[in-house]
Design brief:
Chain A has 106 residues and is α+β, with helices and mostly antiparallel strands. Chain A is 13% helix and 21% strand. In chain B, helix 5 packs parallel to helix 6. Classes of the chains: A alpha+beta (106), B alpha/beta (338). Chains A and B meet through loops of A and loops of B.
């Protein structure tokens, strides 16, 4: 279990307990957090679960597979701290992770 | 006006197999899809990637699955309307009239929406002013490349479309290629070609840059790009091209009075009909308790929706359950009767 904090575009913040084994994307979808559509269902085939990860977490996350960086080319305003939230699998180590959902993502 | 029993919206695996199920029970259908080929997400997103969970097929690619399905429905001579998006829907007496983006019209007894997560549309620039120039000096696809001759073109993106067009247009135009990182997702041979053209001064490559703003009166005259580290650059440019792949959007279906929940259409699990009589939804686009977004679920949903259409298309007939192995009628329709 990890507490994940989602900052959404309307300046709302929600902190949710997400079970180990789910992804940061699933934690958002199951809790109706707006801005994470996950059209492809976690297959790294769209970029609608794109999030900005809080800077101090960047090094602690699993590294990107090739496909993730390619897919981020398609994301809305990608930055250095962009990740696809479907690729971030929850474990105790991610407890306290904070992500921000891009302003316009649909 | 195309008159048929059923219109299937979406030529992905679910729509294709549903056409088979309609054919085998003796109903006719036509298929509309916004892409230029059949296969849906299988062909657009992962043609070369393996799929391991199609029953009785240990492994196949998205392209192989599509080709096999097309082969399977060949006996029914189904008419495809590609590059068409459904726009308008009207009920006239007991029939549905549908109009597409290319002004094709259909008159059908029932509609099956197999639209996946919506129709594929180009992903656009996030910079607001870009809208103003879209269609005149800013494009997301190229229809007539002759307009670019002897002009300055700024191309954004790192995939095959961006690289291929940068290489081709560099023969007759001044080309800037702008990409947000050093790595490219397009073919390695094209990346090498682009780098060589850049070294020879036949193309200007800007990596780790993204669009900051565009300006001009009626036409674009210049744009500003911004480096990862913050510095900006001004580029003179007559045209801007963006190749950021495709995004899926539900589009006009949203306005059809269907019960929509999180970009999916609610259906019953008896025949996958929606809250509107005569409109069915199957595959990734439908939702019901326990829904699994698997291709095999779409096949099951299509088989039941096809039978659900029967009472609209043949109100005076009763559909008898038959197996393809033993049904003479089914075998005649398949053209395999000995």
């Amino acid at each position: 279990m990890a507490k994940i904090t989602y900052h959404t575009y309307n300046n709302k913040t929600q902190t949710i307990d997400v079970q180990n084994g789910l992804t940061v994307m699933e934690g958002a979808v199951q809790n109706d957090i707006p801005g994470i559509d996950a059209d492809c269902g976690g297959g790294m085939a769209c970029a609608t679960c794109h999030v900005y990860v809080k800077e101090d977490w960047l090094g602690k996350l699993p590294t990107k597979e090739d496909g993730e960086e390619d897919m981020l080319d398609m994301a809305y305003e990608p930055k250095q701290n962009s990740r696809l939230s479907c690729q971030l699998i929850i474990s105790d180590e991610l407890d306290g992770l904070e992500v921000t959902i891009p302003e316009k993502q649909a | 006006m195309n008159k048929t029993d059923v219109l299937i919206i979406g030529a992905g695996p679910t729509g294709l197999f549903c056409a088979h199920q309609l054919g085998i029970i003796g109903l006719q259908c036509e298929i509309v899809d916004n892409l230029d080929k059949a296969g849906g997400q299988c062909i657009e997103l992962y043609p070369d990637k393996p799929i391991y969970d199609i029953p009785a097929i240990p492994e196949c690619t998205g392209e192989e699955l599509t080709n096999n399905l097309l082969q399977q429905i060949k006996p029914f001579n189904i008419k495809f309307h590609l590059n068409e998006r459904v726009e308008e829907l009207k009920k006239i007496e007991n029939r549905w009239h549908i109009k597409t983006s290319g002004n094709q019209e259909f008159d059908v007894s029932a509609i099956i929406i197999a639209g996946g997560v919506g129709s594929f549309e180009p992903r656009k620039f996030s910079v607001k002013e870009c809208e103003k120039f879209e269609g005149s000096s800013l494009f997301y696809s190229i229809k007539d490349k002759t307009i670019f001759k002897d002009k300055t073109i700024s191309i954004f993106g790192g995939g095959d479309s961006a690289l291929d067009w940068a290489i081709e247009l560099s023969n007759t135009s001044k080309v800037n290629l702008i990409h947000r990182r050093d790595g490219f997702s397009g073919a390695e041979s094209s990346v090498q070609k682009v780098k060589a053209l850049n070294d020879q001064g036949k193309l200007n490559l800007y990596t780790k840059y993204q669009m900051e703003s565009v300006s001009g009166d009626n036409q674009i005259s210049s744009l500003k790009i911004k480096h990862d580290e913050g510095k900006t650059k001004q580029l003179q440019s007559d045209y801007v091209l963006g190749f950021f792949g495709l995004i899926m959007q539900l589009g006009p279906i949203l306005n059809w009075g269907l019960n929509i929940n999180k970009k999916t259409v609610e259906v019953n699990t008896e025949n996958f009909e929606t809250n509107v009589d005569g409109i069915f939804a199957i595959g990734d686009i439908c939702s019901y308790p326990g829904k699994l977004k698997l291709i095999l679920s779409g096949f099951h949903e299509g088989a039941l929706a096809a039978r659900g259409c029967f009472r609209y298309a043949r109100p005076d007939e009763k559909l008898r359950f038959e197996f393809s192995t033993t049904s003479k009628a089914a075998q005649e329709r398949l053209g395999v009767k000995k």
